[in-house]
Amino acid sequence: MPHEPQPQPPDELDAAAVRTWSSLALAALDRAREDIDAINVYPVADADTGTNLYLTAESADRALDAAGTAASLGQAVRAWAHGALIGARGNSGTILAQLLRGVADVLDDEPAGRGPDRLLAQALTRAAQEAYEAVAHPVEGTMLTVAAAAARAAETAAGAAGAAAGSVADVARAAYDGARAALDDTPRQLAELGRAGVVDAGGCGLVAVLGALWQALSGQEPPAAEAVRGRAAGPVPASVPQQQQRQCDAHDEPDGPAYEVVYLLEAAEEAVAALRGRLDGLGDSLVVVGGDRLWNVHVHVDDPGAAVEAGVVAGRPYRIRITHFGDERRRAARGERAQRAVVAVVPGEGLAGLCAEAGATTVLTPPGRAPDPGELVDAVRRAHAREVVLLPGGADQRAVAAAAAERARADGVRVAVIPTRSAVQGLAALAVHDPEATFDEDVVAMTAAAGATRYAELAVAERQSFTSAGICQAGDVLGLIDGDVAVIGSGLADTAEAVLERMLGSGGELVTLVLGPQAPDALAARLEAYVQHGHLAVDTVVYRGGRHSAPLLIGVE
Q: Each residue of 403-427: pLDDT tens digit?
């Protein structure tokens, strides 16, 4: 929950004012997030804009708090913007992160001769400019429009203050009023909002943030009734440009991009320029924010693996999140919050896409690295459900999952952790997930399915070592069954067959094969034939695990 804002002398633009602005903005978004979620229809009606803005602001506020009270104005705004960048969620949160970066770019540099009122106006202007530049195809009637209107109003107020005795609080109030007026006009600019009878959700959140700015600098609190202004806007006016109307209609089509892909990226600026072009050809809602070799990438695509691979070409992507839109769109259309959801930790984007298609919210974590509890709590929040079943990706991730579950329960969410020890056990549990059953019945069934699935992993030994199956040499293929080395071989296919023979010796009905990024298709065909030849009653399913996944995962149910 947001911490209590500290008292701040009004009309001073310093580090203390930024800390007050941050805490007030977080509190305002916390109060308004459910209402903002409810009016979220553009670019995707997934009912999470308010939550995404809150989580982004929460990450920014934590980073600002970590900077300490001794931080200068420049240090404070840089920490604030960096926290927003690394914690940005969704389309709206990513744009908010870039707006804060624009503010930081100006407030971090305070040359003589500029009063605080002029400095604030320039900061808001830079913020709007950088946000527009970060979005591949800016659309009017959105959060961007609200930011631009706030900047224009601030510049006008700062110019007037230059001739008269104005103040930085006056500039903040002008920006707030300009943003509110622009927000009211969004349904007449964007057809999708007009048809739904609501204002832009992201713009609504930005108004709350700017109201917090005015409050921090003036000591006056914006009226509570102005927090969310989602009133009916009537039908689409004729003034909406025809091209924009087509863009809005495209978002209503059921065959629009199926996945949201978000990741942090370490890369040079020239590589990011090429990345933008590549991602723009894969999907829409592309927003790339950041700088100084750290970027936050957001895009809606049908091929999440290709979007992640584009990041690999550009640099080093991490904290990768892949979300399937299907269930969110249906719930938003009915105005519902999900009763139950599944959150799955997976080792490769292929598995992430598979689990997301089955309705799970996924956290992509490379083998050998446990996710941060905060990442799992974030995923639980993104699932937007009253009950959540959490599937950790391995035994080493179960403690983290348990810690995340405790934090989520403090938010009022009922959470159960299924003790999965492998991604294939998670797939087995997900296959029997029944949202119509009671929570306890569903958890018991998923736990039983995971427990009834023996799992194996093939890996390549990096050095000579002693194992439970004998001494292995560097380059040997190791077949691990239920976590212990059972087979040492020289080739992937031969070792896999030996592992399958041991696993199927005690029976089985279904074999699941998850191929790593370097495994050839011929391997799957060979193993399917091997199973069919020796075990006629056993079915086989094959999936591609994607980058980061092991050379081969095997599950036997």
A: 999 988 988 899 999 999 888 899 8
Q: Give the type of residue at 321.
A: R
Sheet harboring 338-346: ordered strands across? 361-364, 338-346, 385-391, 414-417
Architecture in CATH of 454-556: 2-Layer Sandwich (3.30)
Q: Give the fold, CATH level 3, of 253-336.
A: Alpha-Beta Plaits (3.30.70)
In three-state form (DSSP H/G/I as H, E/B as E, the rest C), the secondary structure along 216-247 is HHHCCCCCHHHCCCCCCCCCCCCCCCHHHHHH
- Rounded CA gap, 141 and 191, in Å? 9
Residue 546: name the closest of 356, 324, 359, 351 by CA.
Answer: 351
Tokens of 521: 């298709």
Mean pLDDT of the chain: 85
Residue closest to 511 by CA, chosen among 557, 479, 458 = 557
Q: Where are the domains of the chain?
A: 15-249, 253-336, 337-451, 454-556
Specify whether the CB–CB gap between 193 and 182 falls below 8 A: no
Return the higher-pLDDT residue of 459 and 2.
459
* pLDDT tens, position by position, 88-111: 988 999 999 999 999 999 998 765
**Angle formed by the axes of helices 143-163 and 201-218, nearest 10°:** 30
Task: Name beta bridge partners: 389.
Answer: 342, 416
Q: Is the pLDDT of residue 6 over 80?
A: no
Secondary structure of 19-79 as H, E, C letters? HHHHHHHHHHHHHHHHHHHHCCCCCCCCCCHHHHHHHHHHHHHHHHHHHCCCCCHHHHHHH
Q: Find the angle CA(385)-CA(390)-CA(393) to the nearest 5 degrees.
A: 145
pTM of the model: 0.71
Q: Are 546 and 320 in contact (CB under 8 A)?
A: no
Same fold, 337-451 and 454-556: no
Query: Which position has the higher pLDDT, 229 or 525?
Result: 525
Q: What are phi and psi of 262, to 5 degrees?
A: -135, 135
Looking at the DSSP bridge assignments, the partners of residue 283 are 301
State which amino acid sits at residue 99: L
Residues 6+ apart with CB under 8 A from 149: 178, 179, 181, 182
CATH homologous superfamily for the domain 337-451 = Phosphotransferase system, mannose-type IIA component (3.40.50.510)
pLDDT of residue 307: 92
Distances from the Cα of 236 to the Cα of 35, 247, 250, 490, angstroms: 22, 14, 15, 67
Contacts within 8 Å (CB) and 24+ apart, 498-501: 499/456, 499/458, 499/554, 500/527, 500/530, 500/531, 500/554, 500/556, 501/534
Q: Which residues pair with 390 in a beta bridge?
A: 343, 417
Reported as half-sphere exposure (CB side, CA atoms, 13 A), residue 155 has a value of 13
Residue-level pLDDT at 7: 47
Domain 15-249 sits in CATH 1.25.40.340: yes
